Inverse folding.
């Protein structure tokens, strides 16, 4: 039996996906298996911090391999192609280093989007700029009015950074998927005015 489509089927109705973000400091490209080596190096360089801040549990394990990472990126790219979720690699301008990743997906709870990200330790000084540029890009190019950034309690740096960018606290429904997060909301036109 075929199920009826959900009211907010992941953004399959988009006429086109906006061009990736490019700034003087970094470039976003759709995350794909071809980025596996750069992504793997970035991920493993800050694995300990990410596991704490993002509450990834035991992932990635110490024995995580480049081949396993390539498979993971293939899954992300498949979601991108199907317009279910949009993962981007954050690359240096010369595209020789992965600085982190950005994940954009639908958030039914706010009838908008959810944005998550991570950066390597060497890019923490530029994290605020990345957040500001991403928020502008999502609001302007994707035309998403409401955007929530979820943070785990352990990521006080990220929470402070988002609040300092003008995002406001938003309380997730108690049984929703974001209930255990500190959620900060960005509204188009209300950010960085």
């Amino acid at each position: 039996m075929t199920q009826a489509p959900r009211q907010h089927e992941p953004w399959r109705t988009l006429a086109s996906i906006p061009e990736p973000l490019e700034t003087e400091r970094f470039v976003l490209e759709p995350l794909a298996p071809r980025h596996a080596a750069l992504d793997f190096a970035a991920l493993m360089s800050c694995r300990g911090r990410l596991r704490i801040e993002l509450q990834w549990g035991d992932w990635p394990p110490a024995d995580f391999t480049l081949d396993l990472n390539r498979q993971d990126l293939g899954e992300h790219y498949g979601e991108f192609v199907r317009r279910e979720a949009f993962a981007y690699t954050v690359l240096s301008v010369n595209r020789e280093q992965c600085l982190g990743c950005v994940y954009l997906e639908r958030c039914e709870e706010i009838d908008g989007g959810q944005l998550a990200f991570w950066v390597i330790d060497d890019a923490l000084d530029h994290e605020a700029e990345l957040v500001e540029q991403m928020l502008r890009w999502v609001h302007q190019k994707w035309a998403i009015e409401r955007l929530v950034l979820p943070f785990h309690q352990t990521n006080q740096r990220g929470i402070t950074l988002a609040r300092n960018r003008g995002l406001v606290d938003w309380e997730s429904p108690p049984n929703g998927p974001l209930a255990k997060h500190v959620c900060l909301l960005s509204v188009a036109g209300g950010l960085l005015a």
